[in-house]
Amino acid sequence: MDIKISKVRLLDGRTVDIAIEGDRISDLCGDVPGNADIEIDGSKFIAMPGLVNCHTHAAMSLFRGYGDDMPLDKWLQERIWPAEAKLTADDIYWGAKFACLEMIMSGTTTFSDMYFHSERTAQAASDAGMRALINEGYIDLGDPDKREVGKKETLESLEKIKAIGDPQVQPALGPHAPYTVSKEGWEFMCGLAKEQDLLVHFHLGETAQNIEDVKGQSGMKPVEFLNSVGVFEDRCTAAHGVHFDDEEIKLLAQKGVNIIHNPESNMKLGVGSKLRYRELKAAGVNICLGTDGSASNNGLDMFTSMKFAALLSKMDGYPEAMPALEAVELATVNGAKALGIDAGVLEIGKLADIILLDKASLCFHPGFDHISDVVYAADGSCVDTVIIGGKIVMQGRHVDWAEECISKMTECSQKFRS
Ligand SMILES: [Zn+2]
Predict the structure, then answer these.
(1) With CB atoms 3.0 to 4.6 Å apart as the test, which of 30, 175, 242, 295 could cross-link to 181 if both were Cys?
(2) How many domains does the chain divide into?
């Protein structure tokens, strides 16, 4: 046995020993016999599955607080895109590595990222010991020249990410959104997804303007358009999903499209509506959770995302819409399902992606219901220890490479001061 966590409390109230061998949970019961190479006294902790952040632009850590309180279009055109034009591959590595640090320190063990120079984000995730699906964002705006460049970048990113040789860090596909990618661009992505069995990760129905843009370009609603290009036949995660009508929800459910709720980013960018959680849930859609990038959130703490998701689902008169346990499921098992990883629950045989929460944190007092505490009272600072694929990446809130990472990222961000 490699690691044994003794007498740890689970969210369901049981106290157990958890044994880890290699990258998997090898035993979990009231009393696991034998000793391990690493023994952790679990009596001070609550164990839960590592959090799964299904929508990030990790390197955007560099732009936290760089442009706020603006609508999406203006924010992108006036602040983000001009700044992104100045980014080097090195900036992206340190921005993404810093995001990994922030995610680890707030209990996230897996993330799914879209950005450019994606091989640098993949390298950062691998160096940080995280589990990740990384894609190269693809935009062609209907321009054949941009399409050729985008195709080339996508194909190169797949090869470069595979070449890192880390089984925890895998490539995916990142067609940005139905309003920025042409029919031919989507068809290229669908072909690749089938050929290499890749996850397709995109934005969908973020603002009302996005919907009108797609209707103007294709004569179809975004969900109809994506269905017509065949992408729903692949494994899909769609971020935001705010502006859907009943018909679109029915189609998304039929096609098994995973919807990523990004409550904080949606609220901050004022996208004009909110995820129709009750309707999506009733239709049987798998709903998972994401933070979006640090420029539109402005952090990567999935604990606060759980809270915002739960609160937002209730505010129009439905306090029972998303109970606390469901918010935890969005952030764990539903995310793992969407990304196709064998984690998200603490069970024998599952990947050992485990976080230990410090019972001494004020949020766990008086401690009537730890599921309630995790969603409504906690933030990421309650996380003491993070284990990913059976390896300890943080213990006692200490991460070996934190100091260097913070200083490098701060250095890279200097050029954006004006
Ligand atoms: Zn996004």
Answers:
(1) 175
(2) 2
